[in-house]
């Protein structure tokens, strides 16, 4: 089966009150581990790539080819979409060309009129190729240069305007942030989520910064219209922890423990376990 657009799987999740995990990939190991986990859990999945990660992996075309080849080689049968995460205007166009089946255009740093105009153009182009589109209103906070900003709150009126363009799903800040949540984080703002959900007329919403949010808050957000949850940091943390334990136990110095196929295995296994846990929490297990 070929890669699919994310539209149908997210609409089904929205109707069925569960969410699709959108996991960021960084290399071949991440791709294999996430696909193996979702195949095992019988869950649809979105593999997503940031522009920085795409540069690291030698370009959008390489990402698309790698994901397709690994997907086919592993005989994956659950629905899989390949999505650009936080794309620029040019990046989104390049991904459509390179064979991605879904793109995010993040125009949240432009003034709203320009975000609206550029979102409209990407939606038109993407839909002409059967590619799904995510846009963003208001920005998502996070850690930059060691400083963690507070989660931002999107304006429901702006969300309604972008939703009316025909975007497939919409990212809107509800107090969520990328990276590790600070100890004094206030939690998701359900009042704002409810206002946004009412304003967008049934459009599925995207929760960025899905790592480290207590699952009771995640479950509540899903019942209120969130149908795609982005996860990056959690997989990086479990990979690093398992790899550190392997090295600290001296296993890289036993026999051929330094072989990368052995050295990277505990980290990859930890990603598989974390993804299975998350898709069960998101409710997408057995929904393929
Ligand atoms: P985390 O790294 O906090 O999981 O956020 C991922 C994300 O939202 C990617 O867009």
TrEMBL record:
<feature type="binding site">
    <location>
        <position position="208"/>
    </location>
    <ligand>
        <name>Zn(2+) 1</name>
    </ligand>
</feature>
<feature type="binding site">
    <location>
        <position position="178"/>
    </location>
    <ligand>
        <name>Zn(2+) 1</name>
    </ligand>
</feature>
<protein>
    <submittedName>
        <fullName>Fructose-1,6-bisphosphate aldolase, class II</fullName>
        <ecNumber>4.1.2.13</ecNumber>
    </submittedName>
</protein>
<dbReference type="Pfam" id="PF01116">
    <property type="entry name" value="F_bP_aldolase"/>
</dbReference>
<dbReference type="InterPro" id="IPR000771">
    <property type="entry name" value="FBA_II"/>
</dbReference>
<keyword id="KW-0479">Metal-binding</keyword>
<dbReference type="GO" id="GO:0008270">
    <property type="term" value="F:zinc ion binding"/>
</dbReference>
<feature type="active site" description="Proton donor">
    <location>
        <position position="85"/>
    </location>
</feature>
<feature type="binding site">
    <location>
        <position position="86"/>
    </location>
    <ligand>
        <name>Zn(2+) 1</name>
    </ligand>
</feature>
<dbReference type="GO" id="GO:0004332">
    <property type="term" value="F:fructose-bisphosphate aldolase activity"/>
</dbReference>
<feature type="binding site">
    <location>
        <position position="106"/>
    </location>
    <ligand>
        <name>Zn(2+) 2</name>
    </ligand>
</feature>
<dbReference type="InterPro" id="IPR011289">
    <property type="entry name" value="Fruc_bis_ald_class-2"/>
</dbReference>
<keyword id="KW-0456">Lyase</keyword>
<dbReference type="GO" id="GO:0030388">
    <property type="term" value="P:fructose 1,6-bisphosphate metabolic process"/>
</dbReference>
<feature type="binding site">
    <location>
        <begin position="230"/>
        <end position="233"/>
    </location>
    <ligand>
        <name>dihydroxyacetone phosphate</name>
    </ligand>
</feature>
<dbReference type="InterPro" id="IPR050246">
    <property type="entry name" value="Class_II_FBP_aldolase"/>
</dbReference>
<keyword id="KW-0862">Zinc</keyword>
<dbReference type="GO" id="GO:0006096">
    <property type="term" value="P:glycolytic process"/>
</dbReference>
<feature type="binding site">
    <location>
        <position position="179"/>
    </location>
    <ligand>
        <name>dihydroxyacetone phosphate</name>
    </ligand>
</feature>
<feature type="binding site">
    <location>
        <position position="136"/>
    </location>
    <ligand>
        <name>Zn(2+) 2</name>
    </ligand>
</feature>
<feature type="binding site">
    <location>
        <begin position="209"/>
        <end position="211"/>
    </location>
    <ligand>
        <name>dihydroxyacetone phosphate</name>
    </ligand>
</feature>
<dbReference type="InterPro" id="IPR013785">
    <property type="entry name" value="Aldolase_TIM"/>
</dbReference>
